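This is your field. Pick holes in the following sequence-structure pair:
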Amino acid sequence: MPPARKRTRRYDSAKTRAAVLAQFAHVREAVGALTPAQLDGPTRLGEWTVRDLAAHLTGVLSSTARRLAEPEPARRELALLDWPAATASAAAAIDEDTRATDTTDLPALFAEAAARYEAALAGVPDERLVPTRFGAMTVGDFLVTRTVELVVHTDDLNAATGAGVPLDRQALAACTRLLADALAAKAPGGAVEVRIPPFAVVQCVEGPRHTRGTPPNVVETDPLTWIRLATGRARWATERAGARVGASGERADLDGLLPLMG
């Protein structure tokens, strides 16, 4: 299938690559400090334990190396903004891969994933195509999706363990922006302005377009609340009631458009 739309935002390649490694390093350090009891504890991800979640996080990097070892596809098949919606179709396969991962030695698993990622990407241009579960993407686009995976699942890890794993600023920014742009692509228009300071502002939803002055329909929230809404970790009504989302104007209701990812 051809790309549905052009990219609306450019990402700095060097910053994205560094952000993936930085966020992975934060997770690696935190997981290494967890006790066996914590690793066997539950998460908000169905039947996954913290150990399962850790295994999946290593796969975020190791899958990059594995896919780059495959032949380069002939043509691009997936646009970056189509990736969030496509992920829902892979839930069963991701679960199967995660449960098949040997987690006997998590420190070694993390070390191997980081080493393979760096070696595989050395000298690889952003324009190279890489196969994914959902179709061929450019390396540059695929690495932006890695920031989403790492940030979202770091938040899952913190929710499960209270470890307080920090979020790399560049990784958080890329994740926030991609999910904001995915909303604008899902509901194109200019009737509602969505503000996620300090990283993103997008307009969406059909209706009268705002051109100057104070927009009549505004949604504003912080990056983590936005990410939780966009991935189904949080509910619109709950976040509004808790004053973590501000919404003004008769069109400023995004409940029917969320989540953006499965």
Summary: The CA atoms of residues 216 and 249 lie 6 Å apart. The two ends are 21 Å apart (CA to CA). The first helix runs from residue 13 to 32. The chain has ten helices and six strands.
